[in-house]
Design brief:
Elements lengths: L1 H24 L14 H13 L6 E7 L1 H6 L2 H12 L3 E7 L5 H11 L6 E6 L7 H6 L10 H8 L7 H4 L2 H8 L5 H12 L1 H4 L4 H13 L26 E4 L3 H6 L1 E5 L1 H4 L4 E6 L4 E6 L3 E5 L12 E5 L3 E2 L14 E2 L2 E2 L30 H13 L9 H13 L9 H15 L3 E5 L4 H4 L6 H12 L5 E5 L17 H16 L5
Parallel strand pairs: 1-2, 1-3, 3-13, 13-14
Antiparallel strand pairs: 4-9, 5-8, 5-12, 6-7, 6-9, 10-11
Helix pairs in contact: 4-20, 5-17, 9-10
């Protein structure tokens, strides 16, 4: 009997030890090669561990929130502007991920203590309150009267909030465990105790990236992370008619892959001419799918910029299937994810690079942008189910304008967040972030919107600061209702810097 008990004890100790060592520790010592705005929860956890192990040598600003936060503020640009214009030598970090609502920001608060922030910044927008979910669950329902327990349960579903299981299982259990059904509660308990279960849906992505970037073609991905293309490249790696790059040893030895669509071919081969001014080579693209190209060895005799030019382009709004998209950008070929690099980039989980879609609206008149806005974001739901949440958001704003404001669920957590910082006398800046003027039109003049501003203002006091800038960016600075383009982010940077700079004593 004693031997059996000893065996069981050793087994449990080994299990917990292996789980802790491999999934809690070692996976975060590997390079993270997941690009910005992908693998959200792993990137968040990886960044947290990175910051936690950095010695604090200067004041720290930590930006928390959802994708609203990291589409709005560029940490490096903000840091540089604070240094140049306000003589503030600070570090700026993100702890944000897509879909991070006030409940989960609240659960994050105790995680901040080891990081020793001097200021926490939280930009919020309508999407963060998840109010549209009420109308999805109850098409005839109202936020002013819905049963809060139903909304809480919906917020805990893994489709709506996987972070609750992957990032904050124990904290979620303590906070809202009483609202869970038994099967959901049991999954949170297991997730709290075992990291291999907790991270089972997210840790493999980075491992796959590490393997693909070293041994694979790098043709299956969600975000381009290769060399800068002077003519521009889309977030998914699509070129225009021309793209330029420098020769590398990797391209010399292995060539490179491009994806050719049937819409580029349009029933006949497409010529692609590649030249560096002294050497010229022509390819005849005749096969759809990923194609491997090998350059003439003469291109590698000297480091000169090489330019590839396609005979023609195609347009995603004229395509079908997975290639269909409602925009007017001329499309060429898709490049492999790490194109033009000798080694894959790492540690870029919160580094945003400009993409061609960020520059669509430069110089557009308001009426032209308005037509493009409705076409690109709200038309063709039957062909593009991915825009369903945008359609639901529009409907929610149109419905809620007829209701009275009710500070329930996520609004209560905004107050708890504010109280947390006030009690600790830690500076906290809550920002009612800019919203696209077009989507603002749907509800800005309503009693609901005005009362919600009054509520947000009421949270200010002590070390808590509130800033309403919801009309501070023109429509051309938005890619949708609430996400900034790269250009919009650059326009807002000095505005954020001025407000944040003034929070530090001179």
């Amino acid at each position: 009997m004693k031997n059996r008990i000893l065996f069981i004890c050793l087994f449990l100790v080994s299990l917990f030890g292996f789980d802790f060592l491999v999934f809690k520790k070692l996976q975060f010592f590997l390079p993270n090669e997941s690009p910005w705005n992908t693998n959200h929860f792993f990137n968040f956890l990886y960044e947290y561990e990175r910051i936690r192990h950095l010695p604090k040598t200067k004041k720290r600003i930590i930006v928390v929130g959802s994708s609203v936060a990291y589409y709005s503020i560029d940490a490096n640009k903000l840091k540089q502007t604070l240094q140049a214009d306000y003589h503030l030598d600070v570090d700026v970090f993100y702890l944000a991920y897509a879909g991070n609502s006030p409940l989960y920001v609240y659960l994050l608060l105790n995680w901040l203590d080891p990081l020793k922030p001097d200021l926490v910044v939280y930009p919020v927008n309508f999407i963060d309150y998840r109010l549209h979910r009420t109308y999805v669950i109850f098409p005839e329902g109202k936020n002013e009267s819905v049963d809060e327990s139903v909304v809480v349960k919906d917020a805990l579903t893994f489709g709506e909030a996987p972070q609750s299981l992957w990032v904050f299982p124990w904290e979620t259990l303590k906070e809202v465990g009483s609202s869970m059904d038994w099967d959901i509660w049991s999954r949170y308990v297991i997730s709290s105790g075992f990291s291999f279960y907790r991270y089972k849906d997210i840790y493999l992505q980075n491992l796959q990236n590490l393997v693909q970037h070293r041994f694979g073609r790098n043709t299956s991905y969600h975000a381009y992370a290769g060399a800068e293309i002077p003519e521009g490249i889309s977030g998914l790696g699509w070129t225009g008619q021309k793209f330029s790059f420098y020769p590398t040893e990797k391209i010399k030895n292995k060539g490179f892959w491009v994806e050719v669509t049937p819409f580029l071919l349009a029933g006949k081969p497409c010529r692609m001419e590649i030249s560096n001014g002294t050497t010229t080579q022509e390819f005849l693209l005749s096969k759809e799918g990923w194609v491997r190209l090998s350059l003439d060895p003469k291109f590698f005799d000297q480091r000169k910029l090489i330019t590839a030019k396609l005979e023609r382009v195609w347009f995603a709004n004229e395509a079908t299937g997975a290639y269909l998209d409602y925009h007017f950008d001329p499309m060429g070929v898709r490049l492999e994810q790490t194109f033009g690099l000798e080694n894959a980039k790492s540690g870029i989980q919160y580094e945003r690079e400009p993409r061609t879609e960020d520059f669509r609206y430069i110089g557009m008149k308001d009426e032209e942008y308005r037509k493009y806005f409705y076409y690109r974001l709200l038309e063709g739901l039957e062909k593009r189910p991915g825009i369903g949440y945008l359609v639901a958001l529009k409907l929610a704003k149109e419905k809620i304008r007829e209701e009275s404001f009710r500070p329930y669920f996520h609004f209560r957590y905004l107050k708890k967040i504010s109280d947390h910082f006030r009690e600790r006398n830690l500076p906290f800046l809550l920002i009612n972030n800019p919203e696209n003027p077009i989507s603002l039109e749907w509800y800005e003049d309503s009693r609901w919107y005005k009362d919600h501003l009054v509520y947000l203002q009421s949270l200010e006091g002590g070390s808590v600061h509130y800033w309403d800038i919801h009309r501070s960016l023109p429509m051309q600075g938005f890619s949708d209702f609430h996400h900034f383009t790269y250009v919009g982010m650059e326009q807002m940077n000095p505005i954020y810097a001025k407000r944040i700079g003034n929070l530090f004593p001179k």
